């Protein structure tokens, strides 16, 4: 599948020549001449990667990069400057790469491909983290509910879990749903114990 890149630079020559080189290399290339235009295009077209000039009038590349980082859109910065402060600012905003002008398309492609792969790896890690957090949440809810049933009925934890699981099966529901209801009911009942006479 062809990757969609958004090239952002206030220099029309860079947009034309670098844009054409990237298209010739097989990418779909969108272009924007300002930071404001770039933000609008990202929201509308959601590119796979934004190649973003750092120094532009109006909204700077660093400012745009902050916004894109919040949206989860990967960025490679583009600049005529390669000083440490500029590089640090770019990387601080989560840039996955840095290209120095004048751009040689053939030399830029490995940086672009590496950034695309790293962005894909980061998305997979975030998805895995989300699944692990949901699993941990389920385990915590069920664990608390098992503890409540075990204590209330003076039975061991395995028997308490079996009771919850059997109830879930009989109602054709998930164990977590039953466990959540037990926690909610316990919380509701416990509120009566905190009322002052």
Uncertain regions spanning at least 5 consecutive residues: none
**Termini gap:** 69 Å
The total count of helices amounts to 7
Task: Please provide the count of β strands.
Answer: 5
Helix fraction, binned, reads 55-70%
Judged by helices, strands and strand pairing, the structural class is alpha/beta
Instruction: Give average pLDDT, whole number.
Output: 82
Q: How many domains, as an integer?
A: 2
Largest sheet: 5 strands, parallel
The CATH level-2 architecture of the largest domain is identified as: 3-Layer(aba) Sandwich
SSE run = EHEHEHEHEHHH
Strand % is 5-15%
By CATH reckoning, the class of the largest domain would read Alpha Beta
CATH homologous superfamily (4th level) name of the largest domain: Response regulator
Instruction: Characterize the overall form.
Output: elongated
Looking across the biggest beta sheet, what order are the strands in?
2-1-3-4-5
**Looking at CATH, which topology of the largest domain would you report?**
Rossmann fold
Spatial extent as radius of gyration? 26 Å
